[in-house]
Amino acid sequence: MVKSANDVVITGVGIVTSLGVGAEPHVAMLTSNMTPQPIVETERFAPYPIHPLPQIDWSQQIAKRGDQRQMENWQRLGVFSAGLALDDAGLKDNLEACSSMDMIVAAGGGERDINVDSLIVDEALKRNDREQLLNEKLTTELRPTLFLAQLSNLLAGNISIVHKVTGSSRTFMGEEAAGISAIETAFARIKAGQSTHTLVGGAFSAERLDIVLLIEGIQGHSRDKWSPIWSRDQGEGGGMIMGSVGAFLVLESREHAEARGARIYATIDAIGGDRGKRDNGRMESRLSDLAAAAEGIDPASTVIFSGTSGFPELAAREKVFLEERFPAASIRAFGGLVGHGLEAQFPLGLAFAALSLGSHAVVPEFDPTAEHPMVSGAQTAIVTTIGHWRGEGIAVLTAEE
């Protein structure tokens, strides 16, 4: 591969999943010769299983208790993961670099006040003037700060406040497509010379009753028990098991990274995103276009990190496409291991890819019944995310020589 000054390289990975905090436990999993075991919570939100947060000492990345208190868990998780990425890149205490660092965040809406929601529903059963009831409760029951906490771009604001990342800032909304667009935009800006270093990623808290209700509203949840993602079927619910995850990356131009002597995990060769109708093979046609950048790879040393949501039909169609397009590559569905993270799903896939390429991992099968072993260390990685409702994205990465 011919190197250039504007190559987009990954120099920092901040990752939190049910498997642990930071790069170390995830590298250990990716380089193990044992099939990793998922951590699943089945009681708190029964009948819906979820992948919970690990134990976290928030003060390791959010020093002030006041800052911690005014955030919700999805914001804490995002700020914490962003701090991990900055630490990993060696930029956490570099005020000059952070002050000129761009930031792109994929975020959903803020958490709801479940007690107030329940109160409104209960009172509405007793009254017919529900519009007036709603206005009354919204003006008397909601704390004023909740309105601020609902703003999606508050995550970026808190990262700026806590970590002093004060370059340009962008926030994308729109479930899985938001994560795809965030990474794609960061990649394009660095490739075009419009940015030299960017903090990009997202976070998702699955441990929220409003999220459980949201996914149940589309009959999306798997029910009662965990099962490997490739073998889920409609008889067990919709196929999705959500996971609390945070994933941020520090992306730099090669010139910027090498000038400061940074460790480079991997180079991002291409990223593409698209959306449209999925009937009559149109999804596969778009995926084929997006996968064109991976032509000529060595399949024996390629790992594919699939971000499939678990919806049985979509998962089956994606697996057929990947096996036909890259028949000798090793597919790993990471959502079956750590859960589905909506906005954070695509950044999480790139984090797994970067850690694998950085250690030339022979990544173990996440589902031995449906995935085959790798025969050599990872030199190329392909990351896919197919939104549970809309939006598709594919990234191609290569290891540093």
Question: Could you please describe the fold and organization of this structure?
Answer:
The chain is of the alpha/beta class. It is built from 15 helices and eleven strands. The protein has helices at 23-30, 65-69, 73-89, 95-99, 114-124, 130-140, 144-149, 154-163, 175-191, 209-217, 254-259, 282-290, 312-325, 335-338, 345-358; strands at residues 8-17, 20-21, 102-106, 169-172, 197-204, 245-253, 266-274, 302-306, 330-333, 380-386, 392-399. Strands 1, 2, 3, 4, 5, 6, 7, 8, 9, 10 and 11 form an eleven-stranded mixed sheet that branches. Helix 3 (73-89) crosses helix 8. 48% of the residues are buried.
Task: Give the helices and strands, then pairings.
Blueprint: E1 8-17, E2 20-21, H1 23-30, H2 65-69, H3 73-89, H4 95-99, E3 102-106, H5 114-124, H6 130-140, H7 144-149, H8 154-163, E4 169-172, H9 175-191, E5 197-204, H10 209-217, E6 245-253, H11 254-259, E7 266-274, H12 282-290, E8 302-306, H13 312-325, E9 330-333, H14 335-338, H15 345-358, E10 380-386, E11 392-399
Parallel strand pairs: 3-4, 3-5, 8-9, 8-10
Antiparallel strand pairs: 1-2, 1-6, 1-7, 5-6, 7-11, 10-11
